[in-house]
Amino acid sequence: MTVFIDPPSWPGHGRMWSHLVSDESFAELHAFAARLGSPPRAFERDHYDVPAERYRAAVALGAVEVGSKELVRRLHEAGLRRRKHG
User: Fold this and answer.
1) Spatial CA neighbour of 3 closest among 53, 51, 46, 41
2) pLDDT tens, 16-35?
3) Mean pLDDT in the chain?
4) Is 8 helix (H, G, I), strand (E, B) or coil?
5) Rounded to whole angstroms, how far apart are CA atoms 41 and 70?
6) For residue 55, how far is the Cα from the chain centroid?
């Protein structure tokens, strides 16, 4: 019942990005992302990509700050990890 975010350390498209995940359900994740103002296109398999400039807003809304390895561990433990195919 928690949404987690890792530090904005992933480069792409001229920006730095964080990943936003839930340890409960995709419904919880989608609801949180909607409150944050993340567009549906920011969802990729099992997480939302959040630009660095939205990181503090996500934390203010209640996202828990964790490292990237911890974030992936939480996804696995929740059974929500979806790997790329092909």
Assistant:
1) 46
2) 999 999 999 999 999 999 99
3) 94
4) coil
5) 24
6) 10
